[in-house]
Amino acid sequence: MNGWHGRLLxxxxxxxxxxxxxxxxALLHAYLGGRGLGVRLLRDDYxxxxxxxxxxxxxxxxxxxxTVAPTSSRLVVVSRSxxxxxxxxxxxxxxxxxxxxxxxxxxxxxxxxSPQPVVLTLTPHGGELRPAAQLWGxxxxxxxxxxxxxxxxxxxxxxxxxxxxxxxxxMGDGEAxxxxxxxxxxxxxxxxxxxxxxxxxxVVADPVRLESARQNVMRLFRASPVLLGxxxxxxxxxxxxxxxxxxxxxxPTENFRKTHFPSCASYAGPALHRAFAPLRYGCDDCPIECKxxxxxxxxxxxxxxxxxxxxLNGIADLQTIVAANALCSDLGLDPISAAATLAAWGxxxxxFPRPAEVGPLLEAIxxxxxxxxxxxxxxxxxxVARGRPELAMAVKSLELPAYDPRGVYGMALAYATGxxxxxxxxxxPIAHEILRKPVPTDRFSFAGKARMIKIAEDSNxxxxxxxxxxxxxxxxxxxxxxxxxxxxxxxxxxxxALMVIGxxxxxSERFYNQQNGFTAADDTLPxxxxxxxxxxxxxxAIPPIDRSRFAEELAKYYAMRGLNSQGGxxxxxxxxxxx
Amino acid sequence: xxxxxACYGAKLVSDRVAAPxxxxxxxxxxxxxxxGADDLVTLGRELLPRLNVTALAIAAPARPxxxxxxxxxxxxxEVIVPRDTETRTFxxxxxxxxxxxDGVHDPAHLASLLGGRKxxxxxxxGIIATxxxxxxxxxxxxxxxxxxxxxxxxxxxRDGVRTAAEHELLADLRREVTAAPGMEGLSFRPGPxxxxxxxxxxxxRVGRYTVERGLVDSFFGNxxxxxxxxxxxxxxxxxxxxxxxCIDPVPFDGSSTVGLTASSELPAHRRIYEMTEAxxxxxxHPRFAVILSMLCEHQADCRxxxxxxxxPAVRYLGGIPVVAGEIxxxxxxxxxxxxxGATGRAIVxxxxxxxxxxxxxxxxxxALLEVEQWCQRDYFxxxxxxxxxxxxx
Lengths: 579, 393
Prior knowledge:
The complex is a heterodimer. Chain A is 39% helix and 13% strand. By secondary structure, chain A is an alpha+beta fold. Chain A has a six-stranded mixed sheet. In chain A, strands 8-7-12-9-10-11 form a six-stranded mixed sheet. The radius of gyration of chain A is 22 Å and the shape is globular. By secondary structure, chain B is α+β, with helices and mostly antiparallel strands. Chain B has two domains: 2-156, 3-Layer(aba) Sandwich (L-fuculose-1-phosphate Aldolase); 196-384, L-fuculose-1-phosphate Aldolase. Chain B has helices at residues 2-14, 38-47, 65-72, 85-90, 107-114, 134-159, 164-179, 196-212, 266-275, 287-293, 307-310, 332-340, 362-389, and strands at residues 18-28, 32-36, 55-61, 79-80, 94-97, 119-122, 126-131, 222-227, 230-234, 247-251, 280-284, 315-317, 320-323, 345-348, 352-357. Chain B has an eight-stranded mixed sheet with strand order 10-9-8-11-15-14-13-12, sandwiched between helices. Chain B has a seven-stranded mixed sheet with strand order 2-1-3-7-6-5-4, sandwiched between helices.
């Protein structure tokens, strides 16, 4: 089979069994892999509570993984989020994905709860469960080191074991399935880690066409100032965004009370360069190499982490921020939700954490000890419990990342409509509203944004199913990736064909959410953004978002999606028509 | 959005990409908005709902470059493959649709082709392109037109003029370039330019001049000015005729990444400033310079396959150096700076022209204009030579 193996590994932790199953070819063509395949495989179980032992945790790679297609060494983990209650899909890059594919599987479906901590070992011979009591309680780095001989490792830390609602799953090279608390789902199953090893090739239908398509993508990468320009992500990593967002006055500061943090240069891309002289590295095959690590192997934070441990908590100290990020990785915590929860707590208390307090607080969260017990539940539950729900800067309980919606109206809409909650990657309108790709749009206007958000959501759902890195699409487009996919699989795909697949995935997720109780009332932003201005200055005004205009555009969005005026499905049998 | 589609529809006509009255631009918001000729709008209405895009533009070009190229294609050809760098990078190839026997194009077929590429050439109709915004649909039509124009004129020079329609198009073009305005009516602020507000104002004005004089395709190109430790440069994807608010101040010392949105040619600009006495730089994609840069007398016996990016030689057009190199992080930024110092002018194979000025933008603009005018004259000189050597019609 070209592109896919056509197999998934079903792991029943309760019974201690693993078995290989075939995946119907029609499903692979209809959902591709990654997020799409995971969402499809969740269809019979989406209604299960995140704490239900039979809720599947799905790891899925895509048809491009294992080929020379740029940025395709990625996987997506799909389940229902304990933090948001929504269906959730989070992506990570690195050798783990490539080795999972090389073990001969397109997906791994994990159900049940093991009676004791285990590690799942995956090879071309299948899966094997090994006792892991000796690893339970260990941090990620120690766990990865202990399992390194078995191949690439994906592990949870103490946060996942202890059910922190924003626990992550960390890959051995530092990349993480960060958002949505899927590490807590893994921990609830007593699954400490997964190792993967294999050498099975991904069969490519037309290697010559693939190389030609790869060259087309590479030309676009090299032509992209954001990706490979001298101030771009290849040079500075995503912290290159710090200066830009500051200049545009949309840096979330002090729990989104402000949108400008004058001290942010202390942790911006150039500051990280001066302080750490970082080396470039990428997710296995990635030519962009946006990851940065020191010569000693310390992974440096991404933009979201530096900005949220920085401006959002009013902290300018670079060493504190880098250490906090590293600690999140080792404890298995999503740094965005961790930092945002601390910021909400800070505003509630009237005092943001001092730099010296951040590390101990993160430790307490991972252990659910002291204040950490409540902080481990995320900003919404924290603020509700303390009677200050208005201070949770989250949508559908997912803490917002480092783009203040008052300065980017497409992002405002995308936060609200996101199936996973307030995620920046569901539509990533920052691409056109700030980075001017593929064309610039007016960031202070809602005009045309409903359609653009819908198109981007569909497109990104397809990208997450190929699986490719969304940053790659700041240079390339689905047009080039459709050519890559056609070359790999031998089946013709076009941009529009991928958009149809993306729309199918997006609508399935929305349907799952609706059936689980989500309504139009959940498609909104925290009240602050409609009533309080941001930090105007340098000739840029940041007023509150016009609520009526926001509502008008949201109504357009529902209509464009074929939903009713309440954002719901007119046809309760929607899923029956889907492949 | 209604204003946008009218604006970009009119612009396709004023750019001479579309014939007057033969353009349509449609956009889907919650309702379908449209501008332009009724028959083209009717076709657009059939196409747009089949595509997950916001906007669609249809332009019957003022010059039938697409039809002439399709007529020169072999029977089985499904795409035109222009070799200029912009097209290689951003469009890859251009699907073609031949005129059906009954003259009526099948919307389903057109939509399926538009589902795979940004724009297509349709015989007897023109160019159709899509976009996530009306602006992008405009850009894609304009880019396809630029690619077709460059390829057709290159093919005519290389392979000979075959038909009366081709002769007619060339005669029309010759009249147009002969009558094209030069520097008259333009005014420039004398240098040195030091104050930020006067730099931004002058860049916006000169950017507009490059569009008005047809020295760019659609409105793409870039412009910069050095003032002390700051390099002011137009942003990526900015319109040279609308640069207000679209110029990034980039510190030379790398102390800030605020220039992340600067033009993809920032590395070339920076190195030109580092290696020469220039204080201003202009970069455009004037068509005849692009065409002539792709004519190389050594091509037949040269071992370099991808000469547009890999050719190590420096050739000369009228004393102006021509070098190869990719856009952005490719080789262009390495090859242009070493050769541009002597004349303040350099041409990039299949791409465009860089010019510099030591004191304000007048010198750089004049150089850009003169390079293109020289290339226009030389194109027709070469054409006349070729026509004289070929058998009479």
